[in-house]
Specification:
Length: 352
């Protein structure tokens, strides 16, 4: 057995990228250099390394380290299979937070709990990559994905020596546990988080519960965009409220900030706890169009639960709309989407 001189054991729920970063910093080199020594011909940090196939990751390690690699990858890769039905791959997966790689920089930061980082050696947990996790299970406070000092998205793989752990900001070097105003969790978002964790661990993949919940997110956004009609009335009857998602940006949930996701999941919780049979009947009674469920509704590989939901909706025949004249004003939602994308780029690529 020939371990690294300052080898760091993986934690039970640690991400592979976090374990690799901690070992790199412990040996006095950057994660970039450390990975370059393990995989000389590959640039591993330009993709989501936590979602790479296990066989691909093991190529850079000797036999004694393979067990550690498997320990830090099995939880997240099992979750990916449960969510998508596919092997881990270098791409976006529903309900898995996207990092938005552009070369070695990321547009989205890694989630963390400031209290966890302040009371023990900091490392990143695999649960924090799941989009429905907005609250720390241990401390009950809202997670964060940005440095409170410089507002940079947290990217631990960009840390450089002399930093000794991954609990600091790569840009301003401030401890991520400092400067934070601890935000309380959103109760109904916590309820959804516990329910989704239970479904991930014990649920039946054939039922397609996560696809079912994803369809309901599309329904929420459809009602928000219309602000009138049968979909809005149905959501009010289900207890969502009059001002649901009033400040939620129109981005995929995998790209949203923590506070925005918490609001959206809080509105989603009353829908997923409603018995599916009752909800499906209401979709048919209120004549909700199939277009309200977005692109996922056209997927032929859905489970029994989401398929029944889509089948209850009213199918609409797409009609070719007339060409819009140049003088006609552009919809506000389109402008807001472009503005949100521009903000993400600015916040991601600012240099201190």
């Amino acid at each position: 057995m020939n371990k690294w001189p300052l080898y760091q054991d993986p934690e039970s729920d640690e991400l592979f990228s976090s374990w690799l970063t901690r070992n790199a910093l412990a040996h006095g080199c950057s994660p970039m250099s450390f990975a370059g020594a393990l995989w000389p011909s590959k640039r591993v940090w330009i993709t989501d390394i936590d979602c790479r196939e296990l066989a691909w990751l093991e190529q850079g390690f000797e036999a004694w380290a393979v067990a550690a690699v498997r320990t830090t990858t099995v939880s997240l890769q099992t979750a990916v299979r449960r969510l998508s039905g596919n092997q881990p791959r270098a791409g976006n997966v529903r309900w898995l937070l996207s990092q938005g790689h552009r070369n070695r920089w990321c547009r989205c930061g890694m989630q963390f709990c400031p209290l966890c980082f302040s009371c023990q050696a900091p490392y990143y947990r695999y649960q924090w990559r799941l989009a429905w996790h907005t609250t720390c299970d241990r401390h009950g406070v809202q997670l964060s994905s940005r440095c409170a000092n410089c507002h940079a998205p947290v990217q631990p793989h960009l840390l450089q020596p002399p930093m000794l752990d991954c609990g600091r900001c790569h840009r301003c070097a401030e401890p991520l546990s400092a400067h934070h105003v601890i935000q309380s969790s959103v109760p109904r978002a916590c309820d959804f988080q516990r329910l989704a964790d239970s479904q991930l661990n014990t649920g039946d993949r054939s039922e397609g519960w996560f696809d079912y919940a994803y369809l309901l997110i599309s329904l929420l956004r459809y009602a928000k965009a219309n602000q009138t009609g049968s979909s809005l009335l149905m959501l009010k009857d289900l207890g969502v409220g009059d001002h649901f998602c009033d400040e939620t940006p129109d981005l995929p949930i995998e790209l949203m900030e923590v506070s925005d996701r918490a609001k959206l999941l809080a509105d989603l919780h009353p829908l997923v706890v409603t018995p599916p049979v009752q909800l499906i009947r209401m979709v048919a009674a209120y004549r909700i169009p199939a277009s309200a469920f977005g692109r996922l509704a056209r997927n032929t590989g859905l489970g029994s639960l989401p398929s029944a939901l889509v089948a209850a909706a009213v199918s609409t025949n797409p009609r070719r709309s007339p060409l819009r004249s140049r003088s006609e004003s552009v919809e506000r939602s389109g402008i807001e989407k472009k503005w949100l994308r521009l903000q993400r780029k600015i916040l991601s690529y600012e240099r201190s």
